[in-house]
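Pipeline run #58 for the internal structure catalog. This entry was flagged by the ingest filter as a single-chain record with no existing model, so it goes straight to prediction. Upstream metadata was stripped on purpose; only the residue string is passed forward. Reviewer on rotation: M.T. Logging verbosity set to normal.
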Amino acid sequence: MVVMTPLATDLLILLRRDLRCLAREVALFPDDATLWRTVPGIANSAGNLALHVAGNLQHFVGAVLGGSGYLRQREQEFGQREGTRAEVVAALEAALEGVERTLPALEPAALAAPFPVAVAGVQPPTGHFLLHLAVHLGFHLGQAGYLRRALTGDPASAGGMGVAELVNPLL
């Protein structure tokens, strides 16, 4: 049985929190069509950002580290222009399942080892790359929230970055 390292435990808490928040953010869009809209100067819709995060985590965490067999379609993550909020939330939930299955199974030595595949021509330590993925998720979560507010004028919060979940990760 693998005992989770503090880093893997913390990453699981943060990725779980932010994937759930992004799913809530997607659900706050008033309809499916608005999820795929943008504003001038913004290239990616919130739907594309959510699919990108889901594909990114399913690929790098689920497939590369966890051997899930997931085949990423990065062009589709950015090229899709329609779909339901439920479909996007399902992709985020699948990413969460991959994270929840993979991180607890990581051997402690794996976090210090180079990431198993080169990313942008380099192989950072796996723990550092996982931290990058968590920050990447938070970046796109914020973008999706601002985009929803700009498109709808709705100031409602999806409850992102909740500190209580850091204290009680079972929330």
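catalog note: The radius of gyration is 16 Å.
catalog note: The mean pLDDT is 94.
status: ready for reviewer M.T.
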